[in-house]
Amino acid sequence: MERTTILLSLLAGLIFAGLLPFSLLAWAVCFLVAAFSTFGLRKYSSRFLLGHPAKNLALLTLFIAGFSFAGVRVHLREVAKPINHIEHYPGTPVQFRAIVDRPPSESASRTQIPLKLVESDAPVGQPGSGKLLLVLNNIGADFQYGDLLRIEGKMTVYDNRTIDSYGAWLDRSGYSGIIFNPETQLILSGQGNPLLSWIFKIRAVCLERVYRLFPKPESALMAGVLFGDESQIPTDVEKAFQRTGTAHIIAISGMNFSVLVWVLLALLSIFPKRWWLPLSLIPFIVFYTIMTGAKAAIVRAAIMCAFALVAKSIGRTRSGVDSLLLSALLMGMHNPAILPDVGFQLSFFATLGILQFNGPLTALAVKMLPEKGKVQVLKALQEMLITTLSAQIFTTWIIAAAFRQFSLASLPANILIAPLQSFLMIGGWLAVFADFCSSRRDNYSTFVFPFPH
After folding, report:
1. Whole-prediction pTM value?
2. Most exposed of 168, 198, 223, 437 (fewest Cβ within 10 Å)?
3. Do strands 111-117 and 131-136 pair parallel, antiparallel, or not at all (unpaired)?
4. How many Cα neighbours within 13 Å face the side chain of 167?
5. pLDDT attached to residue 119
């Protein structure tokens, strides 16, 4: 009970504390008072064997303490920014040096490049910390992760007070604004993290094979499903998926991650059983999370999968709801702005729906089905209908609110797609792997896989 109270209070504070007109000092004082009150009430109520009002009051003060602590975290996000942070220079001409923080993303009309300012190289009186999104109209800009650039231009800042606005998305992604078509000069390459550089090179090689193996627009969809690259998906295709409530199919999601981990666990079963064997997948989870862009849905799925693997290794089970809440809490503590993100909410509530309703709906189906062939029919229903329906109990309303539309075709479309989605992902991975093997066999002397030297 206390563990759930702590998780819920911290999550509630991360979501709602920013809406209350309290200062950082007020939140800190409230946390200290509530924490000491909880300690005193617990000590006092421990003298009673039966229930006592002090125990319920201790839970209330514990909730207030957790809520207040989250309020401190939310306000620290704002006050912790240094004086030379890029956010303090909106609309004014700026000159700074920055490193390409993630691989550039090219669409049909422009190139987007995430930048992280370098404080040690900041000119006097100019910004030296923070993140920006560099947008160039020229396609095919030859910049890579780890390039050190000299930038001169004006930063554009968007209003982030509305949750579903573009400015709010930038804020959740950690960007203070956008700089359009500035004067850009490459100073030096290879300034990023060597491990990240290696991972992004592998991602680039895999994407190149996906786009070569599959025709358009199927190649763009496969790149989104396998590696989180949605930049090449045509706008009309994306809107069609949104209208039918199946937009989650065209992007990397928690389900994709779970399928991959399930396949790897099945492969590990051929080895002799060792208690530590499931833990060997955790480095791969980190690798795949980074390679697919570390989006909110993937990070949540990665944390939950890591919890599940640890529990499997030590022979202990853990409540799925508690694991889900803890994964959301860890992400919220790292970046409080991630919780209002629609993608994160869809992933979170879809998982919550499956955890809460999959069992009751399965039990209901068992009562309704005839005895003959019950096992086979139930297995098919659980894959095609029950899991899909459980996931949509919560997410349908989030989609309707976020995209201002409700599709009656959503449920039947997802029922038809769900059994095939796993085969689509596994087939895509096998195709890429087979292409690698074929390249090494046919042209071994010239094929170079991007392993570090």
Report:
1. 0.76
2. 437
3. antiparallel
4. 9
5. 81
